[in-house]
Amino acid sequence: MEFNIALLRGDGIGPEIVDSAVEILKKTADKFGHKFNFTPYLIGGAAIDATGKPLPEETVKGCLASDSVLLGAVGGPKWDNLPGDQRPEKALLGIRAALELFTNLRPAKLYKALKDECPLRPDIVANGFDLMMVRELTGGIYFGERGRREGKYGEEAYDTECYSKMEIERIAKVAFETARKRNKNVISIDKANVLESSRLWRATVHEIAKDYPDVTCTDMLVDNAAMQLVKNPAQFDVVVTSNMFGDILSDESSQITGSIGMLPSASLGSTKRGMYEPIHGSAPDIAGQNKANPIATILSASMMLRYSFDLDKEADAIDAAVDRFLEEGYRTADLVGNTGVKPLSTTEVTEKILEFI
Ligand code: NAD
């Protein structure tokens, strides 16, 4: 199969980690008989320097014309003093809106080999965990009616949580489809004991669940979910939730893995095209030093194969190569801690993972 991939390398370590993931994608394509065409476009600070804008029109057009987008990271001290709407980070919101990406997929996996990185008690994570957070991205309280007014006690402010049935249906479908590619279990998180929007959420998720009889679906209140994530994270497979609950819980779930350089993400819309990126930023403190851990970006590329191109076997090959890399004891600078292990550089990590594919 042939696919066109737009590359948004961005700033800081962005170019190094994207180039590493491209090597892995090329090898995977060769091994499985596919062709991936890569076209780079400017974004973030690099785009500001070259064109004066963080998200040039050509970048948007190129991404819209591609089958999927791989992004490094944007931002850095050089652009920190620009006004808010001209900053590199503004480009992220712009490109997500232009591609109409309403779903954020954030896996949080604790590799057995990295158990010592986890801040949870060893007996809690004895067998690791592997969950997928499916967060609604374009609705809810972050986009609802808001304002200030005079109230009973003087000035007050309000924000409104509003979800349409359509918005809940489409995110629920993503969650069930995702579960079919994993362990066929969805936990839907809401606050239906208090919020009317959550009651519609819950009823709608149940309706969609009927179309997926092979997937188990249960509800969990958000306050309980926050506790369960630290008490027994292995109980979760796919978690689906609203924009705000997902914002908070996805950060909690990534923290309990303990390793920011390992976590990929995907943003999806109603077409197969998605945007895939590591959850970390541009790490300006180590940019250009060949020290960055490229694994989060490599795993983002693997998610692209799985979720945009339906190339599950190929994605499995990349994931297995990363597993083997860790199992054999190799580590990057962000993972060595006090172990005394000599960390591998970005290029050495890439070479090792290429060898294991
Ligand atoms: P950061 O994630 O860039 O870095 C936090 C710490 O983690 C740093 O010490 C960094 O060296 C380390 N780190 C991050 N990724 C690593 C990797 N792959 N390998 C090894 N170490 C890694 O967060 P920050 O320092 O708060 O932000 C730096 C810049 O990135 C800012 O300009 C910020 O706005 C931007 N940012 C961009 C994105 C994005 O593009 N999606 C996300 C977050 C932050």
Task: Walk me through the topology.
Blueprint: E1 2-10, H1 14-32, E2 35-41, H2 45-51, H3 57-64, E3 68-73, H4 90-98, E4 103-110, E5 129-136, E6 146-151, E7 154-159, H5 165-180, E8 185-190, H6 196-209, E9 216-221, H7 222-231, E10 238-241, H8 243-255, E11 264-268, E12 274-278, H9 295-308, H10 312-327, H11 346-356
Parallel strand pairs: 1-2, 1-3, 3-12, 5-10, 8-9, 8-10
Antiparallel strand pairs: 4-5, 4-11, 6-7, 11-12
The structure holds nicotinamide-adenine-dinucleotide (NAD).
Residues 13, 73-76, 89, 92, 260-261, 277, 280-286, 292-293, 296, 334 line the site of nicotinamide-adenine-dinucleotide.
Order of helices and strands: EHEHHEHEEEEHEHEHEHEEHHH
Looking at CATH, the homologous superfamily of the largest domain is Isopropylmalate Dehydrogenase
User: Strands of the largest sheet, in order across it?
Assistant: 2-1-3-12-11-4-5-10-8-9
Examine the secondary-structure arrangement and name the CATH architecture of the largest domain.
3-Layer(aba) Sandwich
Q: Please state the average pLDDT score.
A: 95
What does the radius of gyration come to? 21 Å
| Main CATH class of the largest domain | Alpha Beta
Looking at the structure, what is the overall shape?
Answer: globular
Q: What's the assembly state of these chains? A: single chain
Helix percent reads: 25-40%
- Helical/strand content category: alpha/beta
**Spatial separation of the terminal alpha carbons:** 19 Å
- Main beta-sheet annotation: 10 strands, mixed
